[in-house]
UniProtKB/TrEMBL annotation:
<dbReference type="Pfam" id="PF12696">
    <property type="entry name" value="TraG-D_C"/>
</dbReference>
<dbReference type="InterPro" id="IPR051539">
    <property type="entry name" value="T4SS-coupling_protein"/>
</dbReference>
<keyword id="KW-0472">Membrane</keyword>
<feature type="domain" description="TraD/TraG TraM recognition site">
    <location>
        <begin position="419"/>
        <end position="537"/>
    </location>
</feature>
<keyword id="KW-1003">Cell membrane</keyword>
<feature type="transmembrane region" description="Helical">
    <location>
        <begin position="14"/>
        <end position="36"/>
    </location>
</feature>
<dbReference type="InterPro" id="IPR027417">
    <property type="entry name" value="P-loop_NTPase"/>
</dbReference>
<protein>
    <submittedName>
        <fullName>TraM recognition domain-containing protein</fullName>
    </submittedName>
</protein>
<feature type="transmembrane region" description="Helical">
    <location>
        <begin position="73"/>
        <end position="96"/>
    </location>
</feature>
<keyword id="KW-0812">Transmembrane</keyword>
<dbReference type="GO" id="GO:0005886">
    <property type="term" value="C:plasma membrane"/>
</dbReference>
<dbReference type="InterPro" id="IPR032689">
    <property type="entry name" value="TraG-D_C"/>
</dbReference>
<keyword id="KW-1133">Transmembrane helix</keyword>
Length: 596
């Protein structure tokens, strides 16, 4: 006899499934018909019939001959069908809820980290580490979770928190509206046990308004807003020349103006380097003579002014003075080009509103980084994208705070306790610290915890170059990758870092002797590039040094306890910004001159 054809086998399968479906409906329906029919019979004064469910379904009159047709129709037909439909609806609802509540379990990806793979980032291990890192916690009987590390999220499919310790340094690459602010920046700031530094290009409805009141309750709030993003009154000033009394310090300050004006690929040309050198020499002279930084703009306008030369010589910087003199007395076209380049870099200092934030102000407190790093204060550094010299001042202030924190850590045994958190949001736009990749190699060991937040890997390459961004990526002990990765090369790099896993493959073959099944193993990417690109919002990949890549469920602040109070405070702060902006835009009587 010839073997059955695939078509006939498919017919048998369909018939079997149809019969199975009919049985799945008829069986419970017949049971309900017998039960409901008997209940109806008793209610109408008739005896209980023997157990014959099929007869109850097909010929109810045989079981209850004395019952009327209406009672039989209701008890053995309508009620059983209604009950079966209701039970089906309830079962469907329960199944739907089960599927919904188990969605995170369904999204688990084979090969990604399990709890044991990221145990050093879990509660028990991270608490032990916190005791060893922070002397103030060694004798504590109970340590709050916020004192152990920065919450990154929950390990996907579980309620187990994943935290980076207070010796880790992190880079977060997350596209706009992927949770970088709501799930990383804001929760970190709210839970920080020590001083907090935040850079941002937004105020209303962002980390600034969401955390302003909460941080004011634990320490003083400092806001540096030279471009009036928050439209707040100026209540502080900072002296950028305080750390420029050495050639290295002056060079770092000039480097911030250079980085804010040109990309990394252009910083090596003659004019850029020469303009930066002139700035550093003039910054050094102004700092040594305790002048305001705005005097540098006067010297740039008049290269023949001998005041900076005399200051440098009087303080023993004769070689620097000789270089400055050589530039001033060089060919006029070269000198003018160099000075014009330097003027462009520092052009923001010509704006009196911006300059007021970095020059002495009467009756306004001076922000001192050395005092800030030993407090529980908060510093908000706000600047617009492409802010040029204004963003240079933001980067310089952030750099001075981290350098002051490093100095303080060395004075107290090597590490700050409590640690300082530096959230460098929009770092590639408003906080271009040229040697930030190099700083990453030691900041964590000092109790200074930077989290640099970028929108893409290429954004970092544009600011720090390929080598610099690679160095920062390699030095980061924690890397968080959120939704919105559209760079195919970077997505493929991440896919390769996550690795492969074994996949069981079954193959079926048919022959005259029958059907045979074989099983083989093959290697497959755990998370291919297209899956990384399609990461849903609310999830993130976490790469921690020495551990498997983990998938995280993010924890936005507005879903946490106390969110209602924070939302109200944020809305109030945002309304204040709006009101101040409207007041500034509304013409005042004085704007039109004296009345006739």
């Amino acid at each position: 006899m010839p073997p059955a054809s695939p078509r006939s086998n498919d017919g048998y399968d369909i018939a079997f499934r149809v019969l199975l479906g009919i049985g799945a409906v008829v069986t419970p329906l017949s049971q309900l018909a017998w039960l409901c029919g008997n209940i109806t019979a008793r209610l109408t004064g008739h005896p209980w019939a023997p157990y014959q469910p099929v007869t109850a379904l097909l010929h109810p009159a045989l079981l209850w001959p004395h019952a009327g047709p209406t009672a039989l129709l209701l008890g053995a037909r309508i009620v059983p069908v209604a009950v079966l439909l209701a039970l089906g609806a309830v079962a469907g609802l329960l199944w739907s809820r089960h599927q919904s509540s188990g969605a995170s379990r369904k999204k688990k990806i084979p090969g990604m980290a399990k709890p044991k793979d990221v145990e050093p980032l879990m509660a028990k291990a991270i608490t032990v580490k916190a005791r060893s890192l922070r002397p103030s916690l060694k004798a504590a009987k109970h340590i709050a979770a916020r004192d152990t590390g920065v919450l990154l999220g929950n390990l996907q499919g579980t309620r187990r928190e994943v935290r980076m310790g207070y010796e880790d340094v992190a880079v977060a690459i997350m596209a706009p509206r992927s949770g970088k602010t709501t799930s990383l920046a804001i929760p970190s700031i709210l839970a920080a046990p020590g001083p907090v530094l935040l850079t941002s290009n937004k105020a209303a409805g962002d980390a600034y308004t969401a955390t302003l009141d909460a941080r004011a309750a634990v320490g003083r709030v400092w806001s540096m807003d030279p471009q009036q993003i928050a439209h707040a009154a100026r209540e502080m000033w900072w002296n950028p020349l305080a750390g420029a009394k050495t050639l290295d310090g002056a060079g770092r300050l000039a480097g911030h103006f250079l980085a804010a004006s040109v990309d990394a690929s252009q910083q090596g040309d003659f004019w850029s380097k020469a303009g930066s050198n002139i700035l550093s020499q003039l910054f050094l002279a102004a700092a040594l003579d305790e002048r305001p930084i705005t005097d540098v703009m006067q010297w740039l306008a008049f290269p023949a002014d001998r005041a900076p030369l005399d200051v440098l010589r009087d303080h023993g910087f004769t070689a620097v003075a000789a270089q400055l003199k050589g530039t001033v007395e060089g060919p006029p076209e070269t000198r003018d080009g160099i000075y014009e380049t330097a003027r462009q870099y520092a052009a923001a200092l010509l704006d009196s509103e911006i300059a007021a934030w970095v020059t002495p102000q009467k009756d306004i407190a001076e922000f001192r980084p050395s005092q800030f790093v030993t407090s529980t204060d908060t510093l908000y550094l706000l600047s617009k994208d492409g802010g040029g010299g204004a963003s240079a001042l933001i980067a310089a202030c952030a750099d001075s705070v981290m350098r002051a924190a490093t100095t303080q850590a060395e004075r107290v045994g090597g590490r700050l306790d409590p640690p300082m958190l530096a959230i460098l949001d929009e770092a590639a736009n408003v906080c271009k610290i040229s040697d930030l990749p190099d700083l990453y190699s030691h900041l964590g060991s000092r109790g200074i915890i930077p989290i640099t937040i970028l929108q893409s890997y290429r954004q970092g390459q544009k600011v720090w170059g390929d080598a610099g961004m690679d160095a920062m990526w390699s030095a980061s002990t924690v890397k968080v990758i959120g939704a919105g990765i559209d760079d195919p090369d970077f997505a493929d790099k991440l896919s390769r870092l996550i690795g492969d896993h074994d996949v069981e493959t079954s193959s079926v073959s048919r022959s005259e002797s029958g059907k045979s099944t074989s099983v083989s193993m093959r290697q497959e990417r755990i998370l291919p590039a297209d899956a990384i690109r399609a990461l849903p919002k609310g999830t993130a990949l976490c790469f921690a040094t020495g551990m498997r890549a983990a998938m995280l469920d993010l924890r936005p602040w507005y879903l946490e306890p106390g969110a209602a109070d924070l939302s109200a405070a944020s809305a109030c702060a945002s309304e204040g910004i709006t009101a101040r902006a409207i007041a500034k835009a509304t013409p005042q009587p004085s704007d039109f001159g004296p009345a006739a």
